[in-house]
Specification:
Blueprint lengths: L1 H22 L3 H28 L12 H28 L8 H22 L8 H9 L4 H5 L3 H15 L1
Helix pairs in contact: 2-3, 2-4, 3-4, 4-5
């Protein structure tokens, strides 16, 4: 029995070594993508805090850390993005052998662009008119994620904002 266990662990170690060696070129790409994904989660949390401060009676949470959202990040977002990078690398190295296309780099760039766009949406959402002009310009071309954090539609949010403005006047 000891001999069989030794051979099984030898095979598993060899397979793990091959996987690490074969996909080692993707590790820096995955680190870059992870940095963007984690920063997007941080900006979403900061947006949640701004929404809770500005609309305390309507906010879905209290602007605190939400383990459900973090679990979704760990279970869905990160694994799916990393698998796409690995799949792109496999296609790049083992399918498109006749041409030199840096597919894994292109896919990682697209993932980073998607996350950067989301970061800018998060940062520009739920801002006062008095804040930086940059955020107001971004809101003209990006969606406002405030409604999503309030569990309402964009039209309901617009009505809420208009009611608030008329009450102040």
């Amino acid at each position: 029995m000891h001999e069989i266990t030794k051979h099984v662990f030898t095979l598993l170690g060899g397979a793990a070594g091959w996987l690490i060696a074969a996909f080692r070129p993707t590790f820096p790409l995955m680190v870059v993508a992870l940095c963007f994904i984690v920063y997007d989660a941080i900006t979403a949390y900061r947006l949640e805090r701004r929404v809770a401060a500005k609309y305390p009676d309507k906010a879905r949470g209290e602007g605190k850390f939400n383990s459900d959202d973090f679990g979704k990040l760990l279970k869905n977002t990160i694994p799916s993005r990393l698998v796409v990078i690995i799949l792109a690398f496999m296609v790049e190295k083992w399918v498109f052998t006749f041409i030199d296309i840096p597919l894994s780099y292109i896919v990682t760039g697209l993932i980073c662009f998607e996350q950067a766009w989301s970061i800018m949406e998060n940062e520009s959402s739920c801002r006062d008119d008095k804040e930086n002009v940059f955020w107001r310009i971004l809101q003209k071309i990006m969606i406002d994620k405030t409604a999503r954090h309030l569990n309402m539609t964009a039209e309901e949010l617009a009505a809420t904002i208009n009611n608030t403005k008329t009450e102040k006047q």
